[in-house]
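Task: encode each sequence below as structure tokens.

Item 1
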Amino acid sequence: MSGPQNAQDFIRALKAATDPPQAGGPLKIEIARQAWDNTSMYVPNKAEAIVEWLLSIMLKDKSRPPYNPLYDSRFWGLLSDVLCVPHAARASDHGRAIRAWMVPLLNRIPISPIVLSYLEAYHSGCRDAVFGFEIAARCIAVLWPLAAPKFNPETLLESFGAVIRLGASANAPVSPFNLPQTLDVSRALTAIVSSYRSCLANWAAKRKHLYTLFLGRHLSSWLQFVSQHREGEVGTLIADIYDAGIETMFGLETMKQAAADHKHDATLSEALMAVPPDCFEAVLRSLPMLFGSYVQSIKRHKNAIFSQGSSHAASHIAEQVQRAAMSLYADCISFARKVDDLPSWECRVLLLEVVERDNLVNAADEDSQALLGQERDSALQTLGDSWNEQYAQRNDCAVKLLASLTRLDYDSTSPSFALVLPKMVAMHRNVPSATQFLKLLVEYDSKTRSIPSFIGHVCEAFSSRRLQRIPGGAKAAYRIACNGPLTSITFYDELARAVHNFLTPGQVLGAIQYVAQRLEDAYTGFLDGAARRAADSGDGARKRRKKDRDRDAHEESGEDDGHLAVSFVLVARTAAAVLRAIPLHTLTEDVRAEAERAILGVHAAVVGRALADGFGTGQGGRRESWSWQLVLAGALRLHYSLALTHGLPTQPPLEQEIAEVTLSCVEDEGVIPELVVEVLRTLMHHCTTSTFDHSSLFEQSLNYLAAHLPNAENTWSGKAHLLESHSTGAVAALQLLVDRWLPEFDAWASIPQLQRLCRLLISSDLSSFSAGTQAMSLRSILVTTLHDAQFWEMSRLQDSFLTVLNEQTVSLDEIDLAKTVASLSAKSSRLPADAIQSITSAYNVLALTPLEYIPRSMHLAFLKRGFAADAALLSTLRYAKKVRVSESQLVVVREVLCRSMAYLDTIESLADSVYWPYVLASDQGVADNTSGLTSVTKDLIDMYQGSLLRSAKRAPEPLTALASKYAQGFTSRTPSMSERAALLLVDSIVQGVPASSLPTQCVDGIHALHTSMVKFTTMVSSGTSTGSIPFNEYSLDVWSHVRILGHWLGLEADRLPQISRKLAERLLSHSNDMQQTVALAPMIVSILFGEINALDSEHTGEHIEYVVVTYIALVRICGLPALSGLDTRLATACKALPTSAFAAMLDVVYEELPTQGKLGPEDVSSLVHFSALLLHDAPEGTSKTCQAFATKCLNLFADDRRFIDIPAVRHEALDFVFMQCSDRPASLRTADLSGIWSFIGALLSGSQTHDASTDLAVFHGIVNTLSALVRLRRDLLLQTLPHLGQSLRQLVACLRAPRPQLGGKQSRLVMDSLPRWVAAPPPSSTSASSTSAPIGAAESKALARLLTTLTTKTLVRAPQREQQQGQQQPASLARPFARHAAYVLTAYAGAVADPLCVLAAPVRRELLPGLCALCEMLGEHSRDAVMAAALDAGGKAAMKALWREYEKQRYVGKG
């Protein structure tokens, strides 16, 4: 199909009235495309003619059939090709620049209708518009900046509104903001927004009109856009759209017009109220940002807005700013109150945080105070259902609101605390802000010295009438209240700290008396309630008529003995926290004596009385009541707390008779577990202070544990109120015994009691407990105990523990291993269930026991018994159907065997001719392998075969026999343990010893094994066709080992077919099956490596390139973390490569390493990882090749900035450098240090761009690299100490963080001095939280360890000839680096004194040991010189503070 052949026909065709111009001919768009592509066809101003026609037809013929030129990608594609041609081609168009003819053309043809129509079609979801949007955006990015200066403000506003609607589109997949933005899309949208902002800045007369139009047409879309992109979006385009909306609404002229009434413009409030209901949630999410921006704008222009009256004082202007801001806050709150849901409360919290952050509350403004009071009342009303978990998030917002109000005006909020605290008693634990609010209240009361009144509010919150408002009865109230924030350990710690530090001496006696009175009132109320209940049930004495009336009044109030008991227990907990923290040391002697008497009086009046009433003679019936048991548990808890109070002259008494009665409760099944635990804890402590019979106490404790611990499958969270059964009570009692009283138990208990406790621990079934749970369980207690050094220092307990372990396993001595193994094929008698349980329990404990504390003789005994246990368990697992045995129990036994043999390193002496053949066949008859049995069995066999290989020189027969046995295998396509073991043996042989070091008979046996494996591969392959190759893990694994073993034996490698490429192609073609790809990749890559040895020199290079490409493709498909098994295989495959092939592979890798090459960043990072693997496992005789390659790589990393800027490549490059310095330090040369220092310097240098999140791995990688150089190559560092000092200075500077609430320029000044991988702090948001340091205490500790390493003496890992030339003596860098230490210390002093930065206290604390090491190097003389010449006033103050800390820990030679 031919078109016009000259310029005249071409122009006539484009201007023809019909399309196509000739019937049956090409369309106009095809004619235009053909003319543009035909470079030999001359048309004057061809580009201008085509663009004019395209824009004209898009503007006029928007819906002409058979196509729509506005949405047709052919039109936009041609326009893009014309506008975006290369500069050379553009210059050849008669030398006319595009701008010269484009601006007049755009003056004739407006493009704004075209762009608006296209964006609206995109927003509506037009398929053609969405498909061609990227091409259209490329054209708009070129045309819009040229045409925008001629547009009127209204047109620019409509275009800006179209961009907003794209971002706020409800059709999320259509929105370009929800898709990866290309450069063209971003440039096009940014050009539209920027042109509108320029118009807004230049057309002052139109701002009010634009403001009105924006509110009427685009406000709801803009708010939806802000709500969708307000979090985590820091892109320039999104920030520009937000700023454009703020500049439209809060421009100087707009705010000036509203300044007369000291309010904001009412038009904005009316527009907000007119938002449709379906946009409410979006508006609520946007309001805090809108309000915050308004406050910032009004503060920025406050002098221009409010300085026109007679009063120009700064205080008056500040009041006007506050009044105007609070006016908008009132309207925002009114809008937020229109609904009562979670987004509404979140909005109200964020709005109030803005008020708090910018200090907008004026105490003299009655309207503001009334508004905040309404918010406070609303929050209090919301907390009415604080017990309901359904409203936990809303309650969290209400508490945050109260916290902000408290920080704003404590005096106005404090009267409501009496209402807030009772509601917090029932608050669910999923309200994290409650604890922070309580901490805030304690801090304020500490500052005002009003702690006693706060204690009163807390005790009042625990009154029974408050607790009765919690539905579910007394037990539910107790459970909810104990789970709440007002009874949390965190709150009681804060309260105790406040009492101890801020309770004045004049308040001590009053506080004690008040607590005593509340305790007595709570207990008296409980006694009255219990008496009324007893009288109503007929158990108590009948009351007189007046008492009956009193009882009726109490019944009407709803107070029962259960709620009264809960009230007493909660008040007693508060009293315990307060009384233990009383600052007796601050009192005078007479006042202190009176305070001590008062505390003991509290014990006598309440605790002693309660224990006597509950445990006294004839009160057994009372102990059957849940409420009485709860009161007694609370009384014992208070007694224990007072007994541990420091400073009391005497211990609170506990009568002997009551103690004996108390102990009897342990045996009572009707007693709640919480009371049992409190009884045991109290009596344990009582044994240490009196002559109470500890033998009976220990016996009762062991009886309780023996009765309930075997059934203790439950876990315990550590809270007493959650002890719901005696099984959890037994866990709590055991934790109490081993954590607090184990030394006393070891000292006082008899040998039978010690053995009984150990037997309880060892005999327990640990298989039902998960190892990863955070709750307290029998397993967690046992693990903690066995890993506690104090436990093994108790000689009596240790002897008992080992004795019981020996008793539990001694029955295995009677088992004949040979007979048991022989009976595996016959269904003979098996071990009974109790013996199986005893054995598995013992080995479960052995698996958790540190090996160092078991004597060698017992190790050997447990090993021999383990062999018998292994065989007995496998026999039972196969044949005994009635005995409950699982594979996991067998796994534990074999893990113990592996640990013990590795620890003893005496496997040769334990080589049993019966056990090891049994292990090789142990996988037969086992149902599944989910428990890891195969893995641990392979480890066991590998350990055994490694020992045979090491002893082959002096005893070659076992290895020869084993290889011959394996050679008889490989007959089945299904792998057995014997075949797996043979492959493990091949790995051990190839990696362990060369063939020349083994006896001839061993080599012959291994050769026979290789022959058998070759026959197997020939059998399974059945030729060389890829279709007949078994594509499974086992067959490929055998094939790869045949190659490796053949190279080790020195055999010709051309006997096997070359199948690696076909296998790789088949694997990559089926890459959708990720699991199969990950499983087969190691074997196929190993085969690829193995076939290199079989190729001639002509084909080796091509094959090596194929190997590298295959590795890159596999990593691209699966990712490096998933291919960890591939790295292990490469270690074996690389060592078997010829030196020439290895050098060629390094050359291929280096050619593709530059990031500006054909490969992407991910592929380059995989290549860097691959090169590190090659160097780590290089063949022998390639040291010079490796050194040259490493030097070139180091120089490449330093020269190419992309190795610094791209995170994935940066990680692998840094790992490569660290590997060179730590794993191959002897290969480093002086020339390598230039590349290393340049690379590290580039990593630590400042950057104007930063990553989205701080990459802490870079900091640790640099520190580890420098540490390796300091420890291993001190000789090289001596020549480059200034570079080391500069790197340390930069690392110290990285610990800085910008101060919170810095301005934009100030933040940029700080961030430009930090590396790229340190993330910029988030922009100021509506949250009042401060910006934390991007690099924390862990990184500071690592840097301190590096600085301390400078003073540590080490040996140099230099090449052997250099070691022979110089005497190797341990030395450090302390003296050489002393002259450079001053510069590192000045960097620290500058960071501390920097007014724009903050060095967090944890960071300084962790860095102190390293700084002290530098101070030790520096000395006082150099310090004085530094103070005089190198530091300013702030730096001198920081240096003096550091030196004082150094002097505190400095060793002065006095002990």
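Item 2
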Amino acid sequence: MACFTMLLLQLLISLLLISLSHGDHCPLQLDPQRAVVRYGGSVEVTCNTSVAHKGMGWEASEGGVPMTKKQNLITWRVSELTEWDIKPFCYINPNKGAQCLIELPVTVYKTPDSVSISTVNHRGPMIEGQQYELQCDVHDVAPVQYLTVKWYKNQTRLNQTTFSDTDKTPENKTVTLLIRPDRDDNRAQYWCEAELDLGAEGPQPSPKYSSKPLSITVYYAPIIQFCRDWSPLTGTSLDSYPLNLYSVEGNPHPDISWRHKSSPVRSSMPLTRYDSGLYEIIARNDLNNVSCFMNIIVEYPPELNCNKSYEVKEKTPFKLPCKADGLPKPEYFLYKNGKIIQHDFYPNWNDSGLYQLTAHNQHGTSNSTFTIKILHAPIIQFCRDWSPLTGTSLDSYPLNLYSVEGNPHPDISWRHKSSPVSSSMLLTRYDSGLYEIIARNDLNNVSCFMNIIVKYPPELNCNKSYEVKEKTLFKLPCIADGLPKPEYFLYKNGKIIQHDFYPNWNDSGLYQLTAHNQHGTSNSTFTIKILHAPIIQFCRDWSPLTGTSLDSYPLNLYSVEGNPRPDISWRHKSSPVRSSMPLTRYDSGLYEIIARNDLNNVSCFMNITVEYPPELNCNKSYEVKEKTPFKLPCLADGLPKPEHFLYKNGKIIQHDFYPNWNDSGLYQLTAHNQHGTSNSTFTIKILHAPIIQFCRDWSPLTGTSLDSYPLNLYSVEGNPRPDISWRHKSSPVRSSMPLTRHDSGLYEIIARNDLNNVSCFMNITVEHPPELNCNKSYEVKEKTPFKLPCLADGLPKPEYFLYKNGKIIQHDFYPNWNDSGLYQLTAHNQHGTSNSTFTIKILHAPIIQFCRDWSPLTGTSLDSYPLNLYSVEGNPRPDISWRHKSSPVRSSMPLTRHDSGLYEIIARNDLNNVSCFMNITVEHPPELNCNKSYEVKEKTPFKLPCLADGLPKPEYFLYKNGKIIQHDFYPNWNDSGLYQLTAHNQHGTSNSTFTIKILHAPIIQFCRDWSPLTGTSLDSYPLNVYSVEGNPHPDISWRHKSSPVRSSMLLTRYDSGLYEIIARNDLNNVSCFMNITVEYPPELNCNKSYEVKEKTLFKLPCIADGLPKPEYFLYKNGKIIQHDFYPNWNDSGLYQLTAHNQHGTSNSTFTIKILLAPIIQFCRDWSPLTGTSLDSYPLNVYSVEGNPRPDISWRHKSSPVRSSMPLTRYDSGRYEIIARNDLNNVSCFMNIIVEYPPELNCNKSYEVRNKTLFKLPCIVDGLPKPEYFLYKNGKIIQHDFYPNWNDSGLYQLTAHNQHGTSNSTFTIKILHAPVFYDSQEKFVMEEGSNITLECNTTGNPEPEVWWSFKNRNISTGGRHFNIERATSTSAGVYTCSATNKFGRNDKTFIVEIKALDYVFPNYILIVVVVFALLAVIIILVVVIWRRRKSSGHYEIGLRSEMQPLSNGSL
């Protein structure tokens, strides 16, 4: 208590010293601390203090406030400030100390009346490079020390000027800027801007006023930026020099002239091929002249003259016989039969014929034809092997198998075994061998050798039956004789059998073998019989219901096969069992099923688990304490283990069920497995004292009673149901009493029943609707903040809404000049609304917000100046007048095209007048006058014959046949006709029509080579392969071999050659040459047979005669064969060759025979089960082919292996399979991995920490790697299993692969830190009661338990703590602690003790007396200190720490 007294004394002394220390400063605050006011505007600044005073006030030349003693906040207010240099200050006479004051800085500003820009001592265009002075005038602005004048060119700032004048009254300021314009500044716009930056207290953003832009015109000398070399065609003039080859700039625009070889040249003179050279182009205007040099090369089309014939030796380089003259240098093209010949042309023996040479550049083409003749000896290009069918003659040797050429054409003869052979002799199967074909003409003879293999169809003879052991390779029982070697196909039931056929036990039956080659087919049928011992493929575990017999063992759980069919028997515990015996729940165990036939017997083991439905017996009632864990009263017996479900009112209850006070009732427990369900019902009863779960504050409306306290604001529960009563200010209150606005406060609600009573406190705030009273009118100056004229009384505090014309006004409302009108203020809370209306009137001088330039049509008056081009506002409404060239203008006067210029619009009312300048440009529609006809030479630039007068400048459009003509129009010979020229601007359109006439000689634009079919006439020469134009239209005639030809003559295959087509009219005649190739359908002759080695390129045995050259298609069995055909071993057969062009088709058939050594196409890795033999190697994992069929053998670790040997798990490794026939042997390697079922060995128990990942305790041996399944109580456990503390128990691990299953059981024990069960945590008891605190905990190992209270151990070793005859000192937080080696856990219990009777404590009286004495001491200390201060100066400070007294107390 003494310590508390000293601390309080120290605090009071500190506050006193702080308050006295403020006497050295003036205790006044201004808001705002600086004022910025527009001249004539209003200002309002508050001055406040927090100290006692004898009086305070404002001193000012306007708006002074007399000294007042009763207020601590006074306001200096001026509604219209017109004094430029005002200096108001606020003063105060404090009770303690001398008078002090604070001066308010005030800035009065005025924006400029106008800002204008002009040139100094200059009018008209400016000359590039000369210096000029611009002047900016700012009129009537204050204060100039905050003024900044900025210069701009277009949108780029050039300079800025500030002022240091301290005069506060309005001034005129002039600022100049020196410029030196260049050509880039032509039509640039200069302007200046005046900105008043009055700081953060001034208007935001800062006021800115700009001048109208000053547009300048800059004259500059000519510049030729570039002039490029030019290559015109003869006859072109210099006037046609293209715009994209040179660039000339200047202001005024320059005139252009030309010079060549130091002499002037007329630009209209046509150029000849001799006028090439260096030219000078000259550009002149009033300021200067410049020139530029370029090379002009005059180009012309080629001219070609050649001899008529040319002889060349075979395979020597061919050189062009003649060259053409032309510029640019011509490109040459050599043609034969309409096809181009490459420049590096070495003529072959077959290249004789008529050729055409073409010389071409971009200006024209010249053609010449000549003949080339090639001489050569006979040539056999190829002769291929032939495989004809028996009965074919050598005359049938196919044309596509050999090629013989020569000039003159050679004779053909044959030789075999060194003797001549008649080509008509029919071949037999014994005539195969090497043959020689010989070609002769007058120049030489050549020969070629080929193999001829005579082929024949197969013959097949087989036995009628065949026996084979299961899973051994089946070999064909017979082989057929035939050439080519036949292909074999084995069938059963109409389905083909693969060659690598290993018969299974179910493959017995009738088979058909077919031998086939392209010349025929032979068939044979035989029987295959398969014998095999019994097989149990699988037998799976079974879980039957009691009363089921073994005869009911399901077919889907085992598979038994054998021939003859096996008998089935059963064994259990080594004894035979009758399969008809019903099973009981005690018959579960391991059973053996046995299958027997005459060949062998096999058995299989499976687990049979006899299952039965659950049985449940429970007590009829159960009592449980609120919030304690509920355990099931009974468990059911059944297999599989039943699942238990607890229900109340038809809803399931979770297993971790802690009954609450409201959970009493009838419950049902259900035990269920797949065989049945058992039910039992029992009653749970919960007892509890009253509970007020919550009571919330309430805000009712006046007139509401406490009975209306809403149900959603409090919750009272108890058994029996509690009674409710109320208290306010420690006194009972009737709940039916209506509440008034004065009844707000803290209320207590009390709930009582026979067990206990509880109470709860809440604040009740009685609310009422708002009431609003306002004045009827309000005046405010434009752009000053508007404050609400009145406030409403209401609870909760009302929200305010200001409306004008039904639209809400924002709270930060600065009325503008156009905001006058009737306003409504609304105050609103949830209980009601109050409305008040008042008038706001805004006064302001005229304003011209903007006036824009105008471009009216002639005849328009100034009264028509559009509203969207200017904006004038004012109150009263201003009058509008106009001025032009400093003189008044009537606004109703119609404007003419001569009235364009600068106009001034003036707005006046009683308060002021303002004006604005704009440019008015009077526009008018175009007028066009043109000549009626115009003649122009073909391919010369067309210039418009006339131009129109109009403003804005018209746009021109030239039309022919309704289609627009581009401006860069060079008329062609086909452009004659009627044209229309249109001049258009937005005010109108003017049209004029004239005729253009183009004259030109005949033109053959092109004539292309032609390939007609025999029997076609020249009259059929298609229009799409030649084009002839001329005016007048030309006549057409033909020439061939220098002689005229009738166009109606029918062409034959011998009429191919060079033809001339001639076009004539009165002006000229022209001709064109084209090759006409007369085409005809193909003819094909081939031999009947052909033999080829496997995988060698197959060449066609014969070639067809036809034009165009035929396309060849090779077919087998109706399917096309690609040209790059390399026959495979299975490609023997009958083929058809087709020769085709667009005029017809020719067909020929022949035979191909293929021979091959053994092939292993693939052998894949294999994973058999133990006990499988290599004979079972599946057909789908390897493929062996060969002719004759290869034999198969095996090797492992470099040693031979019997294919019938059963494999063990140790026989895995790399194996070699070998295929042999008479031609060769091949082998292939594969990996064989012998698989086996899993074997599982596990420990019997396993310990794991709580919430750590559980890893499997043992690994299984098996291939493929087994899949693992972990079970507890018949339910699977996920692999990412983190055991909880309650997961201890018996587990089963199952390992499974496709070959079997292995099971193992083990125990998991969970080690974990202590865990608490839920129990009552809060106890409210009366003094003298006994209390038992219960600490329910579990842990592994068993935890040690102790109790603590107020950080002191009070008991050890017990899970219950008793408090006997509780007193107020027993209240507090009790802690139960449990610990083991894995951790510690604490649980707290709150104990509250309620006193029986309240007695006023003596110690409170003592505290009151002590505080009274302390107050007396403080007063005495202050009095003594003030007396001492009057006679001298003292420093009284507080020590940072209080030193202890001699007795150790503070």
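Check on item 2: Residues 389 and 455 are 5 Å apart (CA to CA). The radius of gyration is 61 Å.
End of task.
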